[in-house]
Write a structure and sequence with these properties.
- The structure is a single chain.
- It contains 5 helices and 7 strands.
- By secondary structure, the protein is α+β, with helices and mostly antiparallel strands.
- The protein has a 7-stranded mixed beta sheet with strand order 1-2-3-4-5-7-6, sandwiched between helices.
- A hairpin with a 2-residue loop joins strand 6 and strand 7.
- The protein is globular, with a radius of gyration of 16 Å.
- The N terminus is likely disordered.
- This is GNAT family N-acetyltransferase.
- It comes from Fibrella rubiginis.
């Protein structure tokens, strides 16, 4: 059996988004969403309609004013954006037994950084934030057809606990709720 060396990604810098980051964050989010859900990967998926409706400067500016939410920008060693997170403190879905849970609303990396250990660094940052805020669990929703993301979350210790409908580009798609203790 051939064993390949385990690649450790160089550290990324993760920092809280400021109002000055609004336009670069929206551009990054639009690119991340398109790369993750492009028609090449998911034929017929209405990704552009979703982006045009939901990933706008006005919407992200409004989301950034929510005191329960925080956006985090991941940058490489050269200071270039690689991905981002959005975390939110609020009541979790009724199906989640642990009521003291932080929602991981968004976790995205540009395609060129996927599979290199950066996703794990972002996830660890999320778990560390949950612990620091006194939460007992983290939960998220993931599209039922996004097998790579579901596999990643499972490797990070997340387990399904239900599902909900997610409006996506004029469609009603099903997201699986997943959670893990911190």
């Amino acid at each position: 059996m051939l064993l390949l060396p385990y690649l450790i990604a160089p550290p990324m810098h993760i920092r809280r988004v400021t109002p000055d980051d609004l336009h670069p964050l929206v551009a990054l989010a639009r690119r991340c969403y398109y790369e993750a859900f492009s028609p090449e990967t998911y034929p017929g998926n209405p990704i552009q309609a979703f982006i045009d409706e939901n990933v706008t400067t006005a919407i992200y500016a409004q989301e950034m004013t929510d005191r329960r939410a925080s956006f985090w920008l991941a940058e490489n060693e050269a200071g270039e954006p690689m991905g981002f997170l959005k975390l939110r403190r609020h009541a979790p879905p009724r199906r989640l037994a642990e009521r003291n849970a932080l929602e991981l609303v968004r976790i995205y990396l540009l395609r060129q950084y996927i599979g290199k250990g950066y996703g794990q660094q972002l996830m660890q940052f999320c778990l560390d934030q949950a612990r620091a805020q006194g939460h007992k669990a983290v939960y998220l929703g993931v599209w039922e057809h996004n097998a790579p993301a579901i596999a990643f979350y499972r490797r990070q210790g997340f387990v399904p606990f239900g599902w909900h409908v997610f409006p996506f580009g004029g469609e009603r798609q099903r997201d699986i709720w997943m959670s893990r203790a911190v």
